[in-house]
Design brief:
InterPro entries: HNH_nuc. This is HNH endonuclease. Keywords: Signal. This protein is mainly α. It has one domain. 49% of the residues lie in helices and 11% in strands. It has three helices and two strands, in the order H-H-E-E-H. The protein has a two-stranded antiparallel sheet. The longest helix has 21 residues. It is globular. About 19% of the residues have low confidence.
């Protein structure tokens, strides 16, 4: 019985994670990159070494998945911000 419950929880969690990822707008990210080229190499597409695109107001806190809510952050800054967002912005 417990095995079935664990399996059900895993399946539901995977399903919710997949749905959350589908809601992200890759077009919004591409528009952001075009409007704000990579600080490391000036490219408007592709990788940006040492940087990540971050949502100014986290999606988990109700922020929009739109270019005007995005910014470049160093990988280190992004990890630090992610830590407090996970704690303080749970839906």
């Amino acid at each position: 019985m417990n095995r079935y419950l664990v399996l059900l929880v895993i399946v539901l969690t995977a399903s919710l994670s997949a749905q959350a990822k589908e809601q992200r707008s890759y077009k919004a990210k591409a528009v952001f990159k075009y409007m704000h080229p990579c600080p490391a190499n000036g490219h408007k597409s592709g990788a940006c070494p040492g940087y990540v695109i971050d949502h100014i107001q986290a999606l988990a806190c109700g922020g929009a998945d739109a270019p005007e809510n995005m910014q470049w952050q160093t990988v280190e800054e992004g990890k630090a911000k992610d830590k407090w967002e996970r704690k303080d912005c749970q839906r």
